Description:
Chain A is an all-alpha fold. Chain A is about 60% helix and about 0% strand. The N and C termini of chain A lie close together (about 10 Å). Chain B is α/β, with parallel strands linked by helices. Chain B has 2 domains: about 5-135 and about 285-355 and about 410-420, FAD/NAD(P)-binding domain (3-Layer(bba) Sandwich); about 140-280, FAD/NAD(P)-binding domain. Chain B has helices at about 5-15, 25-30, 45-55, 75-80, 95-100, 165-175, 195-210, 230-240, 250, 285-290, 330-350, 400-420, and strands at about 35, 60-65, 70, 90, 100-105, 110, 115-120, 125, 130-135, 135-140, 180-185, 215-220, 245, 255-260, 265, 270, 275-280, 280-285, 300, 315, 320, 355-365, 370-380, 385-390. Chain B has a 5-stranded parallel sheet. In chain B, β11, α7 and β12 form a beta-alpha-beta unit. In chain B, α7 (about 195-210) packs parallel to α8. The radius of gyration of chain B is 22 Å and the shape is globular. Classes of the chains: A mainly alpha, B alpha/beta.
Amino acid sequence: MKILLFVIFLLISFCKFVFSDEHLDEQQIIDMGDVEYGQYLGAECASCHHQSGASEGIPSIHGMDAEVFVALMLAYRSKDMENPVMQMIAGRLNDEQIGSLALYFSGLEPSN
Amino acid sequence: MSKISRRLFNTGLAAASVSTLAFPSISLGALPRVVVIGGGAGGATAARYIAKDSNGGVDVTLVEASKRYYTCFFSNIYLGGFRNYGSIGHNYYGLAVNRGVNMVHEWAVSVDAAARKVKLGSGEHLSYDKLVISPGIDLKYDTINGYSAEVQDHMPHAWKSGTQVQLLRNQVMNMKQGGTFVMVPPPNPYRCPPGPYERVSMIAHQFKQSNPSAKIVILDPKNKFSKQGLFEAGWQKHYPGMIEWISADTHGGLKNVNASSMEFETDLDTFKADAACVVPGQRAGAIAMAAGVNNGDWCPIVPTSMQSQADENIYVLGDASIAKSMPKSGFSANSQAKVAANHIRGALTGSKVFDARYSNTCWSLIAPDDDIKVGASYTGGAEAIDVESKFISQGDDSSETRAANYQESIDWYNGITADMFS
């Protein structure tokens, strides 16, 4: 799963480089975050994302690299990645909220 | 582990191992006290989040009569034979041991809102600073002529999880070959809008294997239902000729049910069943009425906090509340509980209170690996909980998408039950 996420991250980074949009980069978004806000917002994620994760389907997001987290959320927000639930969840998050979630989840113990 | 959380940890253990015990809140003196009534998706989540996020700063007591809780969600999956009943049962040890929640396995019988006390079935009282009421639904048997609690084992509603659901499964399995199964869905509003139609799908799936010439007749008190187009396309595809849905306008209303002759009388015809599931109208659980936080059948809430409109120290979650556009579902209750928990901690400990945001997704299984979903996100507006965005499965979804939805629903089940009980 981690390798897959990393590949996705690379792909997204590449696309962003090629199409060079005007959005902030991942680190700037993380810097906007507030971990306490991330804990509150992250409760919504916990309805589906089990701490120990799943071998297929819904993965664990505990301990996920913050930049990968941001890249994935931006890709769901822009609907570049499919899954209607995640597009809906990410679709209403602004940069500060995504940064807050990235800070919170990257600070948690990973599942393994 | 801090001193306080260790103390709560031990208290929780003691409360979990001795059933009716003196109330630990007394020994904790100065801590603010929260009592939560109802250990389902709303109540268990609220208790867990208040205890977890306050790190021992709030004394949380959860009042729930059952020691083992069977989720209503996924009970249809059991009815379809996809999992055993034990797999949807959960206990409260995680809340007691990991989170220090004081478990009281009793019925709450009344609330003295002025004195801020809950009276238990044993006659004991629990004092609170904030009260969460999350009792789910009660059934209004009298919405169907001839139906009552006395005949519910003959024609199970199975709309609260437990023995009723197992009874229904047995009746489906034992129905005579080529017999007719009658499903009576409830009138709006009710718990789990797509539930009756997923239930029909799961029973059809069972019949397809064990009773392929069986018929299912749905006598609906409504003229349309949740995810209707997707369900009907799925029934046509997987169970052609087996399921007949009859709308209220077509049958003209269910006039009477006779549990001994198993007859359903309508303007259109009298239908004779060999087995049946009859789900009457619903209202908020009785304790909400006893607390006086209802307006009619349901409880008005403040959309930004889930506080009762009748009492700022009481919060009403889940099916019992009037959340308007948010459906009555376990997912909704779990989502509402997090808003309430954040608000309650803010009021009691001064922690930061954030904007109210809610979400819901309902997955419904039509046949193996053919699962549809509908969902929405919401904000707490001034007047009501407002829809922010929504989605629904498409009629032309690939079979891979439908199969992935089913896997996602299983992962969600594991996620939400951990989010309630761990």
